[in-house]
Amino acid sequence: MGNVSTDTSSFWTKADKHLMATGVSYSPVIIARAKGTRLFDTNGRSILDFTSGQMSSILGHSHPEIVEVVRRYIGELDHLLSSMITQPVVDLAERLARFLPTPLKKSFFLNTGSEANEAAIKMAKCYTGKFEIVAFTASYHGLTSGSGSATYSAGRKNGGPAMAGQLAFPAPYAYRSPFKKADGSYDWETELEFGWSMIDRQTVGSLAAFIMEPILSTGGILVPPKGYLKRMAVECKKRNMLLIMDEAQTGVGRTGQMFAFQYEDIVPDILVLSKTLGCGLPLASVSTTVEIERGCNKAGFIWISTHLNDPLTAAVGNKVLEIVERDHIAERVKRLGAQLRAGLDKLQEKYWCIGEIRGRGLLQGIEIISDADTKAPGLDIGQAVSDRAMLMGLSCNIVNLHELGNVLHKRVGHPSEWANFPWHCTKSLNISIIN
Ligand code: PMP
Q1: Is 140 an annotated catalytic residue?
Q2: Ligand 1 mean position to 408 CA, how many Å?
Q3: 413 CA from centroid of ligand 1 (Å)
Q4: Distant-in-sequence, close-in-space partners of 285: CB < 8 Å, separation ≥ 6
Q5: Helices then strands (H, E): number in the chain?
Q6: Is there an atom of ligand 1 within 6 Å of 288 CB?
Q7: Of the four listed, 38, 72, 160, 372, which is most buried by Cβ atoms within 10 Å?
Q8: Longest Cα pair distance anywhere in the chain, in angstroms?
């Protein structure tokens, strides 16, 4: 490489001139190469990638077997007319069905989490003939119209009205919930009943589905207490609503089970996978039952986007699932997750600004606070920790919802007024597995 500093400045000049900002503040580090759990910047500095790219590269970057599949399929079977299905697609649908609970036999494949959730929401509307969708107040399901309407943790402002029939449900956020028992512990049952009472009041009688993450990831690595998901499944059933489980960040082994809904004895009506299924390539899946498939088709459900059931990415998905099974990745995650957690717990003993550590397996979050008594969010400390980590060679995502914090700041004037607002600063550690 030539004069790095000159290259760097021309890189940023061009980026400023021609790349449209989309609300993501760019990392100052320019990455030239990614391999396994490591990123390498333009100076050759090695950085540990604790977020697996955008929480996707579950087997590490450029896994040699995935590279081989991509090379082969780009050369012989890349992309086709959406009505043409191929061997890799049929194999992936079959393989996925083997991993999933028996009723979830039928799948199709798309690109992104937003797109797949959009499809799942549409399916729920078609199948039930109803249109109201419920989601948690700390949810993230995407940014397209339907998935974005069901996303409450970011990106809601100034884009016009949300979809008609979108309703919010209090997220299970034990650390900050106002619902407490006499002994100070989290009273999730009362909160859950309160949530449903609000839904039952607001509904116009058209509840189609509840879309949820089994661990709310972008919203702060919120792990629902034991029994919570099961109870939610019962409440959905009572109201003849479908349960859509969005496992973008949790699926394919990251939490120590193949799918995080398996921590409770439930079977969603629709399961959506994305990020981890493609290990960094754009692949998402929507899986459901034969009965829901039939109902959707009867109601005229249609989904023919350009990359529906593409062979190249399906071949990648097959390889990802093959490796995850063959190398016992979920068990490995359990073991490594326990090791990571023990280390994080030690950090918490040492540093008062770590309010809470939560997560499962290798999906862990650290909530940073600025006041140990009031538990006020520690946005600045979180940012400083994140910046320092990057300087020391560790990339860990800060999902501090800073954007919201700043917006609130501007709106209400002084930070003291919004310090107790339950937006917090969480670092998520979605570690790649292979090194
Ligand atoms: N669902 C969840 C749980 C996610 O975390 C994300 C992405 N952060 C999405 C959906 C949206 O996926 P995509 O960005 O691929 O559209």
Answers
A1: yes
A2: 24
A3: 32
A4: 92, 96, 107, 108, 109, 110, 116, 271, 272, 273, 274, 277, 317
A5: 14, 15
A6: no
A7: 38
A8: 66
Measured from the Cα of 144, ligand 1's closest atom is 16
CA–CA gap between residue 232 and residue 81 (Å, rounded) = 40
How many Å lie between the centroid of ligand 1 and the Cα of residue 55?
Answer: 9
Q: Is 310 in the pocket of ligand 1 (CB under 6 A)?
A: no
Residue type, position 114, single letter: S
pLDDT at 25: 86
Give the ligand 1 atom nearest the CA of 250: 3
Q: Which two tokens stand for residue 141?
A: 């399901």
Q: CA torsion angle for 16, 20, 22, 24 (degrees, to 10)?
A: -20
**What pLDDT score does 169 carry?**
98
Distance of CA 179 from the midpoint of ligand 1 (Å): 29
The DSSP output letter for 46 is E
Q: How far apart are CA 22 and CA 363, in angstroms?
A: 26
pLDDT, block means (10 residues), the chain with 435 residues: 63 96 91 97 96 95 98 98 98 98 98 98 98 98 97 93 98 97 98 98 98 96 98 98 98 97 97 98 98 98 98 98 97 96 96 95 94 92 90 84 32 29 50 46
Atom of ligand 1 nearest to the CA of 275: 15
Instruction: Give the pLDDT confidence score for residue 383 in this predicted structure.
Output: 87
| Residue 276 CB–ligand 1 contact under 6 Å | no
Q: Which is nearest to 122 in space by CA: 292, 325, 364, 358? A: 292
Of 141, 35, 50, 57, which is closest to residue 362 (Cα–Cα)? 50
Which one is catalytic: 73, 140, 152, 173?
140
> Best of 57, 141, 279 to mutate for ligand 1, by most ligand atoms within 8 A of CB?
141
